[in-house]
Amino acid sequence: MKIWVDADACPGPVRDILLRASQRLQVPIVFVANKRLTLPLSELVSTVQVGAGLDVADTHIAASAQAGDLAVTQDIPLAALLVPKGVVVLDPRGELFTEENIAERLSVRNFMQELRDSGVVTGGPSSFSAQDRQQFAATLDRELSRWVKTR
User: For residue 116, what are the domain limits?
Assistant: First the structure.
């Protein structure tokens, strides 16, 4: 297993939770971003700096992640590419994307994008909260525990 992080918009508290989990379970973690990242030195932690551009980090993660890996992204189209490959995907607020919910999530995302493109103001997501951090940690712990049991 490897943990893949779509790091361009990953909240700091989520990054810290992921780094601790990587160390605790000795699981390699890869942060992919189009900017330089400063992370703790560890043989388990690596970064990939991709070029600037729309979806460049997503393309790298989609091409690199394999069945049994875990990915963290808030990008629903990326999640829609990863879930069918057998990658466990969760967003920074702790939502788990599955075969059962990814088509609906993608459809809602596309609908909201169409509204925004036509000039409708839809508002953005609420700010990242302590409850979001707790939900992410709980979902991550549950998914990593499942992985440990199958080792």
Answer: 3-150
